[in-house]
Amino acid sequence: NAGVTQTPKFQVLKTGQSMTLQCAQDMNHEYMSWYRQDPGMGLRLIHYSVGAGITDQGEVPNGYNVSRSTTEDFPLRLLSAAPSQTSVYFCASSYRDRAGGYTFGSGTRLTVV
Amino acid sequence: SQQGEEDPQALSIQEGENATMNCSYKTSINNLQWYRQNSGRGLVHLILIRSNEREKHSGRLRVTLDTSKKSSSLLITASRAADTASYFCATDDGGTGANSKLTFGKGITLSVRP
Description:
The complex is a heterodimer. Chain A is an all-beta fold.
């Protein structure tokens, strides 16, 4: 089915470990972004990309890296996991003008112990 | 920092009643969007209203936008138990440049009692 696919759905990490959250879309969307959702905080933008080879920081970029080598994929890397990064992570994509709204993935629930 | 702020934070109504949710924002926007999130799921796009529009309808949804007051409202008519979810407004600063982005509020929890 067309849409945004996030893997894994659940992950437990130890403090200091690194990992990559995967995000792929098959709608030929130029725009992709990563949000984290915490209770009472809504969704906060981590990083976003307006096209292959172009990325920029959002509101809470520290501790995360991204790259966009293809239109389809936008992985989020946690460099050295901290308990403060325990959250639910959502990837979203849209056409460049975002006029049709975002399509969201189903999320990755990450726990850092 | 978040652009949109929804009001109220939580709303509980009886099935069949109308639900009205409000969103205020601070800076100029290109468009405003509303999303729904069911428990444990990703967000689903409901409706988008552009800055030059005042009202828009989609099925049982009606959204209004007042750019002079920097506010929007989402009305769900004849609510159903299945409408129970969190609702988010999101503001888009417009453009296609590298700095353009969508900013979400903290959300409203709607409970519809059967």
